[in-house]
Amino acid sequence: MSERLGLDVPSTGAINWPYLTDTVSNIARTRHIPGELASQWKERLKSEATHVVLNTLTALHTLSLNGGRQIRDQIALSKCMKHLDRLLNKPPFPGVETAAAQLLMDWAFLYG
Q1: Rounded-to-integer distance, Cα 101 and Cα 112, Å
Q2: CA-to-CA distance for 72 and 61, rounded, in angstroms?
């Protein structure tokens, strides 16, 4: 399942760029984020491992940049935004709030 997100096995949390590229292409083609994938993002954003959360933010940003307006709208209207808000207000470890804030500022600038 991790490979569908473009991330390596959950124990490493590393980005697997070829899989992420395929995932972004499939989502852009279908214009829909599968529920299973959204659930996986949610779980990864709740992780207590710094690298897992930061790599998930990178994957979300990559998807938002390459997925088109409908995908960005799905991200904005999903529980994903609630989890990003949690990362800002109750970060599980130092530095994650900065990464989440930067992601949201990028999105506000690019899509505002």
Answers
A1: 15
A2: 10
